């Protein structure tokens, strides 16, 4: 089957000439490598599309409540740091956009959430400093420049070497895992997930599972694969907490009741003395 150009061009761009010919023109659906590659590409772009909106419900929930209660600020700081490093690393490695594109959107949404968390705590100056710092870091890590030598050779230079960036990417594995811990602990202590969005949590878990497959299929990088495998485990814990604490509310503070009991007992003692 021959598709018109306006359909063929994007299909070839996504799955390549060989797999386009095999799957679309020759209808050869027994070619396992192309089938796996097409599935990976479909999942990859699906994750990227999902990443563009994955935290929008979380942002809406915070704005509506005018509060980020139950959401760990430190968890979002660490996750955003890992996102900025991973985004720069993937761009510098020229990895397919389908294997990391959602990181760009998640980074922007995380910055919005961090800004809102600080804003609703009356820390607008701190919000500006935090957001500016992350944008500056991303620019430093990802920026490259090309120079032409006298013989016409193109030399690429960067403020941060690729070796150092590779080390930082390795460091994102523990950073990503540690970023989940404060939120897991916060949920456990409260017996509730507070203002956390179920849509965001469950989509994160599904997305990390799919990313394991796309990384195995398209990217030969053990560092990225290890990161997604461990991230899937911790996202699974958060998803289980979301299911466990569904419709739960934080336990009310006992401080006031204890104070009330104390004052009432003192009143009773005074009454007895007067008697």
Short description:
The protein has 275 residues and is mainly alpha-helical. The protein is built from 10 helices and 2 strands, in the order H-H-H-H-H-H-E-E-H-H-H-H.
Summary tags:
MannP-dilichol_defect-1, single chain, PQ-loop_rpt, 2 strands, repeat, mainly alpha, disordered C terminus
Structural write-up:
The structure is a single chain. With 275 residues, the chain is mainly alpha-helical. It has one domain. Helices cover 73% and strands 4% of the residues. A hairpin with a 5-residue loop joins strand 1 and strand 2. Helix 3 runs parallel beside helix 5, helix 4 runs antiparallel to helix 5 and helix 8 runs antiparallel to helix 9. The protein is globular, with a radius of gyration of 25 Å. It is found in: Membrane. InterPro entries: MannP-dilichol_defect-1, PQ-loop_rpt. Keywords: Membrane, Repeat, Transmembrane, Transmembrane helix, Transport.
Task: Itemize the secondary structure elements and their pairings.
Elements: H1 5-25, H2 32-51, H3 56-65, H4 73-92, H5 101-119, H6 124-142, E1 144-148, E2 154-158, H7 162-190, H8 198-218, H9 222-244, H10 255-274
Helix pairs in contact: 1-2, 2-5, 2-8, 3-5, 4-5, 4-6, 4-7, 5-6, 7-9, 8-9
In DSSP terms, counting alpha (H) and pi (I) runs of 4 or more, how many helices? Answer: 10
Flag low-confidence runs: 254-275
Q: Overall mean pLDDT score?
A: 83
Radius of gyration: 25 Å
What structural class should be given to the helix and strand makeup?
A: mainly alpha
What is the tally of beta strands?
Answer: 2
Order of helices and strands: HHHHHHEEHHHH
Assembly status: single chain
Q: Classify the beta-strand content into a percent band.
A: under 5%
